[in-house]
Amino acid sequence: MVTDPRSAERERLVALLKARSVLLGDFVLASGRRSSYYIDCRRTTMHAEGLRLVGRVGLTAIRARGWRPDLAGGLTLGADPVAYAVAAASCGEPPLVSAFTVRKAPKTHGAGRRIEGCFEPGAAVVVVEDVITTGASALEAARVIREEGGTVLGVFAVVDRDEGGRAALEAAGLATEALVPIRELVGAAP
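The structure corresponding to this sequence follows.
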């Protein structure tokens, strides 16, 4: 029996997320809802080992979906290290996938861009997220990308909180892939 080499990397990523990113307590989420846990993915996606794992495992998952993006990116800040990790991983596994970031508001100086990085109109992109909760960030990123002439292939996230975000994205016509469902990090979601 041949073992998928990426399954060990995914298991290590889950272990890092549990150790570094799961916080228990009383939190107010970006949606305004309260939660007994918070997933601070940046503590993993910005960690050297986490960055490597997110890139390698994420790139594999994106390609397993049949997506062949030119670019990966999403709404700053949570999406940024995920996009950069996927881009870096593609250097060792061409074809290359470059990165971009969607600003929350256009710059008021310089070129006044809403999308920064390697984005060009006509690009096929995967919107990336660190955590999907309601799906609002990915929906906003997809809207901006389409307005700027990009084609959105789907949405990729590291963690899905299983709180309706995937359903909202899919209802908007965005196929969605998440590496880790919340139940793998906190058991049955509180």
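DSSP finds seven helices and eight strands in the chain.
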